[in-house]
Amino acid sequence: MTFEIDRDHGRTHALFILAVDKACTSTPSSSRGEMGSRYRTCLAFILLLAVVPRPSVSAQQHTVGAGSSLSVEDRARPFLTSPDGTFSCGFQEAGENAFSFSIWYTGAAEKTAVWTANPGAPVNGRGSRISFRRDGGLALDDANGTTVWESTTSGGGTAALTISLLETGNLVISDPSTTVWQSFDWPTDTLLPSQQLTKRTKLVAGYFSLYYDNDNVLRLLYDGPEISSIYWPTPGNDPFKNGRTTYNSSRIGVLDDNGAFVSSDNLGVNASDLGPGVKRRLAIDPDGNVRIYSLNASTGGWTVTWAALAQPCSVHGLCGPNAVCEYQPSLRCSCAPGYEMVDPRDWRKGCRPMFSVTNCSLQQASPEQQPRYKFVKMPHTDFYGYDLWYYQSVTFQYCKKICSENCLCFGFSYRLQGQGVCYPKSLLFNGFTSSAFPGNIFIKLPMDFNTSSASPASARRSTTGIACDPTVPVIVKESPGTLGRPRNGAEWPYLFAFAGVLGVLDLIFIATGCWFLSSKQSIPSSLEAGYRMVTGQFRRFTYRELKGATGNFKEELGRGGSGVVYRGVLDEGKVVAVKKLTSVAGGDEEFWAEMTVIARINHINLVRIWGFCSQSRHKLLVYEYVENESLDRHLFDTDRAALPWRARYRIALGTARGLAYLHHECLEWVIHCDVKPENILLTREFDAKIADFGLAKLSKRDGAGGGFQLSHMRGTTGYMAPEWALNVPVDAKVDVYSYGIVLLEIVMGSRISDQTTAGGERLEMSQIARALRQVVASGDIVPLVDGRLQGNFNPRQALEMVRISLSCMEERSSRPTMDDIAQALTACDDEDEHPAYRS
């Protein structure tokens, strides 16, 4: 039965009303007999009217068959309602003339969505339609006919399939014996009672997500455009200190009907109104916090009955870079002194400096030429993480001097907790102000910067719903490089103790130096600062520790030109990948130099590095363990199922973003030099993570000649740019060339180096490029795409990928940048189900 039939029922009902009106209306000329006859007829019509179907009856269906649909113009009625009336699904307003297809609690005053088919991709308020197609697929079509979302059942259905909204709020497509699709398997930002959160699902709200990590712990993650950061449970503790366990790999979390949320990692929390009979939901909100909400049956309003974070400003990334979050008593953001908002409408983009950032090459100048700085104090404020290193038992002035003399330091945190503790910052991120915080942050600004003319951000309402107030800074007007006495209540004890501290430090340095000499390890003085930074940010392992963690290097994960990778398990249960480097060109000095750069690299599409070992001839790196193997195994292994098109496009885009970060956004310009499918690792969600970038040669952005000279060729045959063989300085365009080859292989599903002519001869790159030009010119992409996809791909995306690949193979000067490529792929990205191309 369709809703068009329901409208017919409505017309029938109206005709009966007209008939009753005519039958029951008497005229002055009517006789007594006629009036009695009319009375009997009227009564019969009234009785008949009672059994005529009304529109409201058909609008309350909880199950419909194939062919049913609802247009957005009829959004006043639900598409389906659960049998007990608790849940409804249909069109819900998502903006001005914008609508989503959602499920909500019927009795709530605000129809807050508990599931949405098309988050972030609303459809037009006129001409859009949700349809349960005859092939068994539920599809949402926009006004222009484009399918913006559809269930994964499309194409395999039968006439026996029905769609139902259950009393649990689960939207289910099933046949008489089997459930073939359900909304509970595809949560958006909400978990309903009895709905499971699993290792394959997560709750997402903007840049924030609730998910099970590789160590089986339920976590909250900020995953921004440039930085990712876990902020719950307390990131500074190991899982056991946070009351969690890593020893249950089932990874399941459930909110029950009594308001208790129980997770397999030992997390158990209760709603404050624990007990049956209350309608609830657990949701991750746009402010990054996870809360349990309970519905007030009398008012229809929602009440927070549990929250993961008691302090809202504990959420990372909430106010963006160079900004500070404060709760007083509502959430407010403000820029650090010397910084201004990037976008007045959106605090998530943070703040940018109002001064010119110093070129680090100036740090090599004479003391007279070095830039001079002042520091602006922000009381009871800190920026969590991104410490270059930390010092204990030091004075305020010593901490300030360290930051003044380090180009990579943008400020420092100093606090007194029985001793002076100093945290120089490489990045001002995750800022917060709290009267309970025992320390202060000091923002580094050029000496000639006029802080009085820099007007702080005024209170505004941003698109994220966060209001912002200015922070009134206190300026510390002291010339850099001067070791005066610290300004704090314990200044005199530190003054008297300072000489003793220096003596102790001298002894430590002497002892450390002797140890290194005895073990035949020497760290060049030019790299001493980098050493301090690395040992503070990473964990430094001994060779014995890594030998034990890997079971004497027993389980090999892969190998390449730079070394062999083994699986390891650290003492705290964390699974890692340990790379045993076979050779480190240039010895310890180059190794330490590369490590100082690795310490500052952090991007969601780059493999995270947890630590390292440098002990005599042993050089090892400790990486995060990425569980879904490398791209080549999914792309070229014919015994596996074909990698779906959506996953391929995600991998291509993620890899482009990771390389763009290395080339354009790092403080140091990083060239990978060996981009290939084997160095692109995949998470369980098929997100790309680039490996081995830490072993690349480095160059300053403004290096002479725009490139750098290598002592020998690097890379893998088939992916190496032609300039490698020409003995000329190479630049980031060698990675662009390699990426173009990988991009083409993602489309084709086979190695480019394995392509042959009809006669069995291997194709030259010039022949391949000529064939690609013909494909781009004709637009006929079908013969080029991996046949194992059986036509299930997006032709627009495939053609754009081939066009980009062709441009990457041009002469070096004509190749695009990775930033250009990332932008082009983003423009073609479609996060929802793509329209399939079928040959």
Automatic annotation (TrEMBL):
Lineage, uppermost ranks: Eukaryota, Viridiplantae, Streptophyta, Embryophyta, Tracheophyta
InterPro entries found in the cross-reference section: Bulb-type_lectin_dom, Bulb-type_lectin_dom_sf, EGF, Kinase-like_dom_sf, Prot_kinase_dom, Protein_kinase_ATP_BS, S_locus_glycoprot_dom, Ser/Thr_kinase_AS
Annotated organism of origin: Panicum virgatum
Cell compartments where the protein resides: Membrane
Protein's membrane topology: Single-pass type I membrane protein
GO MF terms, alphabetically ordered: ATP binding; protein serine/threonine kinase activity
Enzyme Commission code(s) on record: 2.7.11.1
The protein's name in its UniProt record: Receptor-like serine/threonine-protein kinase
Cellular component aspect of the GO annotation: membrane
